[in-house]
Amino acid sequence: MLLGVDVGGTFTDAVLLDQGAVHTAKVPTTPGSESDGVMAAVAAVLERAGAEAAAVEVFAHGMTVGTNALLEERGARTALIATRGFADLLEIGRQDRPDLYRLCAPKPAPLVPRELRFEAAERTGPDGVVDAMAAEEPERLAALVAASGAESVAICLLFSYLDPGHERRLAAHLRERLPGLHVSASHEVLPRFREYERCSTTTIDAYLSPLLGRYLGRLGEEAAAAGLPAPLVMQSSGGVAPADEAGRAGAWSVLSGPAGGAVGAGLLARAAGEPDALGFDMGGTSCDVCVVEAGAVRRTDARRIEGRVIQLPMVDVHTVGAGGGSVAWRDSGGALRVGPRSAGAQPGPACYGRGGSEPTVTDANLLLGNLAADSKLAGGVELDAAAAAAAVDRLAAQLGLGREETAAGILRVANQEMVRALRVVTVERGVDPRRFALLPFGGAGPMHAAAIATELGIERIVCPRASGVLSALGLCASDRRRDTAHTVMLGGDELEAERVAAEVEALIAAAGAQLGGEETEPELVYEMRYAGQAFELPVPGPRRPDPVALAAAFERLHEERYGHRDPEGEVVLVDIRLALVAPGPEPRPVAAAGELERRSRPVSFDGEWIETPVLRGEPGAGERAEGPVVFELPEATLVLPPGWRAEVDAAGTITAGRG
Q: By C-alpha distance, which of 449, 440, 362, 344 is closest to 8?
């Protein structure tokens, strides 16, 4: 029996898998005390399944706690210790600008203010120690950090990825001298070259870890009191780790929530026989998109979040501020805009009847018939059509449009934001979206899927029965995973088999060869480039690679990516990336009995109101329908316009195609 709980900006979702049967629940998120919402969702799904907490074998958890703390800049009071002369590294950053033609575009303020940056009297160079650290230096710095009132400290010294001796001394002294202080040392967090990226990642780790540690500690206590196993936490890399480990390494869980959705998209794409799919997760606050190829989610090695660099392995998810709760507004030029501001969980869209007065995407869907006024949304939310109409009317008056025109305009603008996000991960990276299926999920995703598929020329939609809680379902199926990397800089005569093998074995030993007592086979990626280039290409390879074969694979990839290769160029192995993976369960959901409530209502399609069949409940295997049709699933609504056909497979997944 597998339990997954995902905390979103508006709702907290729970999924319980029991021998293929899927039990779900959705409750409002409790901002500021997210663990309360988690336990409420757990109680709801256990009650629906008629199960006891003691029967749960795995409890996996995904969250946005770290993401929100970073975006809202409400992490721990953090100090930074850097090599003398390099304390302003975070502020200087890189030469690239966030906007090519806005020379004065602001960058985010450093997470560590100037008064909390301290310089260590030491220096290590590429060939070893240049200025030795005096015996009294760790105590001097510890006294400064203690006096500053910092709750956490990041240590990032020059060339510590090659020689971490000074960092180790500092970290050990601070942990002994100030036991209540969280210490993030760059050689532990990210032992790779590029000082700015290493410093930024280590600082984010220090900034988030105390907050996550407290949250996960509280959740663990509540889970134990309820008779549940200790939670496993989804990390940005798409694998789960024990809660105590995740709480000590905050930077690794920044994309915890979206990663669960990406894993779930890969799982359902494989199960539906559509291994190439575009995951499209539209919740209440944002929309996350990802690419699934051959049943596996694409990964990346770095990410910017609000201008701040995190150089850690993570699923390749692109996010835009377009969700069901995104607020529609008129800009100074008179144009209709949607998002990125959201009505959130409190007060929520106007139609939720909780005091919201601004028009949102959900309000527009209600007024156009995609949602029914007599429907109860997940979490017991009852819709108020009059409140939605009043909110949209106020915006319509500002725009000089009618109510229906404004509602349709809100959906068109929101759809274009999501199409733009999907183009970022496909067209802009040389991928043709037309050869993929569209896999919508999240509470609002399936409502917009047909319009987005039409815009991108996609012919197939795959809508899972549990699409409204797919992120939580993905948590149930996640691998246990541990990632690390190390810079080696081997080129010329140094790039030989024994040297590479020794570096790989050292990395495996540092990561630990077991996960939960299970022996694992490492996944290895070799980051390579020509000497003098600024960026590397990832080359997958075996545990004991042949350097000649690695170089040949790199050159093939270079020609594929850039259109040429350099036969005279020296190939350099820059980094070795390692992942230890213990495969998670492969749940096989089965379709429900198929008891549907059949009704109809008018729905607006391209400005024309059409009386449309509505199928409410969980459709059984073999159920077929032709558009226009609305499937009202337990946690999501799929709207198919005229010209689409749908069929339900053995897992309860709705597969729809045009024509």
A: 344
